[in-house]
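sry for the spam today, last one i promise. struct tokens for design, 346 residues
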């Protein structure tokens, strides 16, 4: 197999990139409804077909699968049931995660890492996952008890390992999709925002790359709310730099993004929006937060880090916003209190 896919009759293959947020589902629902085949960014799961045809309830289905964003997943399942009733072909495609689940089952059967055959897809997935997980643990340790500089180094190590994992993951998925995309009809490919590399990889596999279109649903939703920009936080930007440029080396830029990412990780909301009206306010708030973090200098991050590291999200966000507001006054001639003088004890 050449890995090339035939030119679609309709001339439309859409790669939709978005955060896994319930408020974004209405934005890509219409695009999915205009597609003949929909490729989901998830591994095959037990009960999926039964959930689609309604013989298994959405709640019962979600109870037996591991979902990171339950509100988003419940909304997506409702949409997929509607699309299935319309006759859309819906396919789960995420080979990296399928290999990863297979590795977990392999170990559950009593096998050990040394039993994995070298130079196989299984070993590549295991190595990428192990390296990223090890680096993530190193970051957690540094962030909880290490110095500011140690934490910055840990952030950069994790971002590089995570980028290597994403390059492997996206490459595996693109190759599988190249073999599955039909030669006629319209196609929609779901992907998270961080999987932007999929666009480049798919273009290399298409015989007519001009028929591939990428849509950033986060950006579309922000424009709908009257805002501009994106939802890539500083940590995402650092990871994307390493994804697209594995050999990237600009210590000043990397370190500043790493520093801002430490602050952003503390102040960004971890919970999903559960607004019944699918309000766009959560993404507007997140965009504002990203813009705010983008105003922090290296010295700002260094001062804030030892204080916010022990705070909860609400406290950390309040402190950072107060700090920047005070810093703004300082730049206008007013005095600037140190973070410890903003009412929060270290």
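last one done:
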């Amino acid at each position: 197999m050449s890995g090339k896919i035939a030119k679609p009759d309709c001339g439309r293959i859409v790669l939709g990139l978005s955060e896994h947020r319930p408020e974004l589902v209405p934005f890509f629902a219409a695009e999915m409804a205009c597609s003949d085949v929909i490729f989901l960014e998830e591994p095959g799961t037990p009960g999926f077909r039964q959930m689609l045809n309604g013989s298994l309830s959405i709640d019962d289905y979600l109870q037996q699968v591991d979902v990171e964003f339950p509100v988003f997943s419940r909304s997506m399942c409702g949409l997929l049931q509607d699309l299935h009733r319309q006759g859309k072909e819906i396919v789960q495609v995420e080979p990296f995660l399928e290999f990863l689940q297979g590795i977990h089952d392999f170990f559950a059967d009593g096998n050990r890492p040394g039993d994995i055959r070298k130079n196989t897809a299984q070993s590549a997935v295991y190595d990428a996952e192990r390296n990223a997980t090890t680096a993530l643990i190193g970051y957690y340790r540094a962030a909880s008890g290490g110095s500011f500089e140690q934490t910055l180094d840990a952030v950069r190590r994790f971002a590089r390992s995570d980028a290597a994992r994403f390059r492997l993951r996206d490459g595996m998925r693109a190759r599988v999709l190249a073999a599955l995309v039909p030669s006629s009809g319209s196609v929609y490919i779901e992907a998270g925002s961080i999987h932007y590399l999929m666009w480049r990889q798919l273009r290399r596999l298409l015989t007519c790359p001009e028929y591939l279109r990428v849509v950033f649903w986060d950006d579309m939703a922000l424009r709908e709310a009257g805002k501009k920009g994106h939802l890539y936080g500083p940590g995402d930007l650092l990871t994307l730099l390493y994804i697209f440029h594995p050999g990237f080396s600009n210590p000043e830029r990397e370190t500043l993004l790493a520093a801002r990412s430490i602050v952003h990780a503390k102040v960004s909301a971890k919970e999903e929006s559960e607004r019944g009206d699918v309000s766009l306010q959560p993404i507007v708030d997140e965009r504002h937060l990203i813009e705010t973090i983008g105003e922090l200098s290296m010295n700002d991050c260094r001062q804030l880090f030892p204080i916010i590291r022990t705070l909860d999200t609400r406290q950390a966000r309040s402190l950072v916003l107060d700090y920047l507001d005070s810093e703004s006054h300082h730049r206008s001639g007013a005095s600037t209190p140190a973070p410890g003088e903003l009412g929060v004890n270290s």
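The domain at 13-99+172-224 is CATH 3.40.1010 (Cobalt-precorrin-4 Transmethylase; domain 1). ok im logging off now
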